[in-house]
Amino acid sequence: MKLSHILIIFLRVFAINWLLVGFFRLFVSIPMLTSNWLSAFYLAGPGVYFLAALLAWIFAVKIAKVLIGRADCDVQMAKEITPAMLFSTAFLGIGLYFFLTYLGGSLNWLHYLAITQAGHDLMTTAVDEDSNFYSLTSSLIPCLAGLALAACSPKLGRKLARATESQLSTPSE
């Protein structure tokens, strides 16, 4: 199985996850709808999840080709697994896990801040801006770090494999 196929499977599993989260958020948002046209923004959150699920499913192959690139290799479970393959797969999995896990929360906070900054505060309670910024960054930083880790996974895997091999080849004292 190629590394890109593993990534495609991973992306499509997250697409299913986002679809389910979108449905859950839709059921929570429907009771909040009023006759005010601004209340339709409550449907934007579930809409983003539905759109993300659709795009992740449709473009999973292209995303895998971009992220893996020329480093695509066969991952065989029983033989010919190199340390670089293992490290690359681990970095890719961890990076995508953090990126995809925190992407929804980041988009949700960006959407919320865009609405409140535009003067269309749909919430009835006042919320401290510092806590909003903290909540946004607590989702956005792991999201971006995961994306960077996934994008650099082949290079990091090769470097870590070389470092590990050089440590194993030097005689211990």
From TrEMBL:
Keywords: Membrane, Transmembrane, Transmembrane helix
Transmembrane annotation, as ranges: 7-28, 40-60, 81-103, 133-152
Protein name: Uncharacterized protein
Organism: Roseibacillus persicicus
